C-alpha cells in the first residue's frame, strides 16, 4: 500500500484526492493537512508520497518544505514559472535523498494531456495557432497552467520546424488579444457553469483544426493523480518531472 498524505485536503481538488486515495485498492490515506497545519507532520516515516493541491501563493513554499523533509511530492497546484521550477530543482539537488522526486502536472485530466500532446504534433503544419482556456470564475490564476504549458509546447514545435511568428496585423488591442506566451496568444474565459476546458485553434489558408478537451467534473483528474502517485512510489523518477505525458506511453 502506498501511504499518501494530502496537503490542501479541504479544498475543492484536495477533497477529491482524499476520496480517490481512500477508494483506490493500492493506496491508503496517511495525513490530511490544510491551511494553518504544520507540514512538519509529514515525514518519510508516515508518508510515501504527498499530494499538494493548494494555491499558487503558497505551493512553492510547501513543496520546498516537503523536499527538505525527504518526502516525494505530487503537485497539482498551478501557477508555476521557470523561476519557481528552478527553485525546486535547487532544493532537490540539496535533498536528503538523492532519489527524491517532485512531479508537477499542469493538468491531470487524460483528455487535456492528450490534447496538449496532439497540439505539439499539429503545430508544425499550421501558419496560425491560438489557445483559449475556459474555467469556473473561482479559479485564481489566468491563464491556466495547462494553457500556458500548451502554448509553450506549440511554440517549441514551431521553432523546431523553422516556422516564423504567427501572423497578426493587430496594432492596438487594449489587451483583447490575450497574454502572449512564447509568441502564442492565450485567452482566458471565466464563466459560471464551466469547470475546466481548453480549445487549441490551428489555421492555414482555407482550413482550420480545433482540438478541444473538456473536464466536466473534478473526478476526471483523479486517475491522473493516482497514476502520478504510483509512479513516484515505484521509484526511478528522481528529480523534477513536469507533465503527465511523461507517465503515458505517447
UniProtKB/TrEMBL annotation:
The gene is dapB. Homotetramer. Pathway: Amino-acid biosynthesis; L-lysine biosynthesis via DAP pathway; (S)-tetrahydrodipicolinate from L-aspartate: step 4/4. GO terms for molecular function: 4-hydroxy-tetrahydrodipicolinate reductase; NAD binding; NADP binding; oxidoreductase activity, acting on CH or CH2 groups, NAD or NADP as acceptor. The active site is at residues 135, 139. It is an enzyme of class 1 (oxidoreductase). One of its GO terms (biological process) is lysine biosynthetic process via diaminopimelate. NAD(+) binds at residues 8-13, 37, 76-78, 105-108. Its EC number is 1.17.1.8. It catalyses: (S)-2,3,4,5-tetrahydrodipicolinate + NAD(+) + H2O = (2S,4S)-4-hydroxy-2,3,4,5-tetrahydrodipicolinate + NADH + H(+); (S)-2,3,4,5-tetrahydrodipicolinate + NADP(+) + H2O = (2S,4S)-4-hydroxy-2,3,4,5-tetrahydrodipicolinate + NADPH + H(+). Keywords: Amino-acid biosynthesis, Cytoplasm, Diaminopimelate biosynthesis, Lysine biosynthesis, NAD, NADP, Oxidoreductase. This is 4-hydroxy-tetrahydrodipicolinate reductase. Belongs to the DapB family. Gene3D superfamilies: Dihydrodipicolinate Reductase, domain 2, NAD(P)-binding Rossmann-like Domain. Catalyzes the conversion of 4-hydroxy-tetrahydrodipicolinate (HTPA) to tetrahydrodipicolinate. Residues 113-247 form the Dihydrodipicolinate reductase C-terminal domain. Residues 2-108 form the Dihydrodipicolinate reductase N-terminal domain. GO terms for cellular component: cytosol. PROSITE patterns: DAPB (PS01298). Its main location: cytoplasm. (S)-2,3,4,5-tetrahydrodipicolinate binds at residues 136, 145-146. The lineage of its organism: Bacteria, Bacillati, Actinomycetota, Actinomycetes, Bifidobacteriales. It is found in: Cytoplasm. InterPro entries: DapB_C, DapB_N, DapB_N_CS, DHDPR_bac, NAD(P)-bd_dom_sf.
